[in-house]
Design a protein that fits this description.
The complex is a heterodimer of chains A (265) and B (286). By secondary structure, chain A is α+β, with helices and mostly antiparallel strands. Chain A is built from 6 helices and 11 strands. In chain A, helix 1 crosses helix 2 and helix 2 packs antiparallel against helix 4. The longest helix of chain A has 24 residues. Chain A is globular, with a radius of gyration of 18 Å. Chain B is of the alpha/beta class and 286 residues long. In chain B, helix 1 packs parallel to helix 7 and helix 3 runs parallel beside helix 4. Classes of the chains: A alpha+beta (265), B alpha/beta (286). Chains A and B meet through helix 1, helix 3 and strand 4 of A and helix 1 of B.
């Protein structure tokens, strides 16, 4: 049996308040009915309306926190995303919206890149991951300081040019879900999965080319939110990382169950 | 280091200033619209202000974000103190104000009323209005740049890390007050564009309106072929920085190297598109 231990790090865009993080991240253990542990990150559009809610509803829905989690097929994802969209549009909090807010919701809406992952057969002969992506949030599968798989494969200089993601308009949503890409890979004891939104993923992709051992040692050793925020602040200051909300979820796979629960205050 | 790359945020807001010609010739009808140049220009300015407010609106129960400080200065006929001159074009609570933070602007339109579609579609919509159409007198463009420059200078000193100020001049005529205070129009523009933040020099763009339906020339890279006062305006207009070249290309414009922030003989919908391109500074789309 392979166990999973995950942690989420995030940092808001410089200049924004902590509560204005517009990414989303969620995880859920196996459900006991054959669905494996799930992990998801999403990156809400800065220029959208209600983007934090949209990103966070998407990741929560994908891991099964808000109703049945979707299968990893285009058809199931479409039905699920449409239901999430309805909840986003009809949010009771919008009863207090101003005219400008209503106008923006109706004319602009929101948009989020999305990456969802499920781990399968962790107690069986072929443990593996299966993932769906829309846009440039990226999964890095790392073994012994080396990237075994990157999904989607995006070169460091190609971030920002991928228009895919999940929009809140019905027609756009249907078209975009049809563009979802799927991938999978086999897992081994000691592997690490990193799910990152675009600004951090872009930096990781570039740092992996420069000095992969240093990169993966640093990321595997992150043990406190402050260390992550310092890393992000330093890389932004060095102009290696774009000033954007950043999110990194690390999933460690280990045959030994967790011995401690760590809470950072 | 590469310039014009700073994204807008509340800690590093941008600055947009529009210089609005309110001279007598703005009373002429604009193409087939039936409305005057002044009507169309005011409509475009109100549309771009609404666009900026919408972009800075992010969530229910959250205020409009201060992504920009905005100034609209009119030249020609004045409303505040009748006669010819330069004044803030804002009315109501904002009357007489120079640069106004976007959240305050969003709170204080002078009216919300039915306005026609800018692209001549037979529809109208209720929208906030900050600027009304006015025309009369001559074209004191130098004085307008001098007044705006004072505000821009102070703003740049307070926001050294921000994207540089963007000044967009909407006019249909020839300057009538050059030299002003001992300096020519070219001198005033040089003074304005010498105001810098760490991210670059102030950008000065020009939009020339024509009452006639003639060929539009948008973001030319060469003054050749421009009728008067096109070559003069070309020389005064800043080169488009790369982020705006990218914006223009996305909007379908064939922008050549060396393109200037100049739009010549434009119609109403093109005026709005040019304002949108000229005020869209780098930002993360996601």
């Amino acid at each position: 049996m392979i166990h999973t231990r995950h942690v989420v790090f995030y940092a808001v865009k410089h200049g924004n308040a902590e509560a204005e993080w517009e990414d989303g991240a969620a995880a859920a253990p196996a459900d006991g009915n054959g669905r494996g542990p799930r992990f998801a990150v999403a990156d809400g559009a800065t220029q959208g309306f209600g983007s934090a809610r949209w990103a966070q509803q998407l990741v929560a829905g994908f891991v099964g926190d808000e109703g049945a989690a979707p299968d990893l097929t285009a058809a199931a994802l479409h039905d699920w995303a449409s239901a999430v969209r309805t909840r986003w549009r009809d949010d009771p909090r919008l009863a207090g919206a101003t005219d400008l807010q209503r106008l923006k919701q109706a004319t602009v809406g929101s948009f989020a890149t999305f990456l969802g992952c499920e781990l399968l057969d962790l107690a069986g002969p072929r443990p593996r991951w299966s993932a769906v992506a829309l846009g440039d949030a990226v999964l890095f599968h790392v073994r012994e300081h080396r990237v075994v798989a990157q999904f989607p494969r995006i070169a460091p200089d190609a971030f920002g040019s991928n228009p895919d993601g999940l929009p809140t308009d019905a027609a756009g949503l249907t078209a975009m879900v049809g563009r979802a890409s799927f991938a999978g890979g086999d897992l081994a004891d000691g592997d690490l999965l990193y799910l990152a939104t675009d600004a951090f993923a872009q930096w990781v992709a570039a740092a992996d080319l420069r000095d992969r051992r240093a990169l993966w040692t640093t990321l595997a050793g992150l043990d406190h939110p402050e260390r992550f925020r310092r890393l992000v602040a330093d890389r932004r200051a060095a102009r290696e990382m774009v000033n954007d909300d950043v999110t990194l979820m690390r999933v460690r796979l280990d045959r030994a169950p967790a011995a401690h629960l760590v809470v950072c205050l | 280091m590469e310039k014009y790359r700073q994204s807008v945020s509340r800690s590093e807001p941008g600055c947009v200033v529009i210089l609005l010609d309110r001279s007598d010739s703005m009373k002429l009808a604009w193409g087939r619209t039936g409305a005057s140049l002044a009507d169309g220009a005011a409509l475009a300015v109100n549309n771009i202000l609404l666009d900026m407010c919408i972009k800075a609106t992010t969530e229910v129960n959250a205020p409009v974000r201060r992504y920009f400080d905005v100034g609209i200065f009119s030249y020609g006929a004045r409303l505040g103190e009748p006669g010819e001159g330069v004044e803030s074009a804002f009315g109501g609570v904002l009357a007489g104000r120079g640069l106004v933070p976007l959240p305050e602007l969003a709170e204080h339109p002078v009216a919300v009323r039915e306005e026609p579609s800018i692209d001549l579609m037979p529809v109208s919509a209720r929208m906030p209005v900050w600027v009304d159409p006015v025309h009369g007198h001559r074209t004191p463009m130098c004085q307008a740049i001098a007044v705006a420059g004072g505000h821009v200078f102070d703003w740049a000193a307070e926001h050294p890390g921000s994207f540089p100020p963007i000044v967009i001049n909407i006019t249909d005529g020839m300057v009538t007050d050059s030299p002003y205070d001992g300096a020519t129009l070219q001198d005033w523009v040089r003074r304005l564009t010498s105001i810098e933040t760490d991210d670059g020099a102030t950008l000065f763009f020009n939009v020339f309106l024509s009452p006639f339906e003639v060929t539009e020339i948008v973001f030319p890279a060469d003054p050749g072929g421009l009728p008067p006062p096109g070559p003069d305006l070309f020389a005064l207009s800043s080169p488009l920085p790369q982020p705006m070249i990218d914006n223009a290309a996305v909007d379908g414009y064939d922008v050549r190297p060396g393109a200037r922030g100049l739009a010549f003989n434009v119609g109403r919908s093109t005026l709005l598109r040019v304002l949108q391109i000229g005020t869209r500074v780098p930002d993360r789309t996601r």
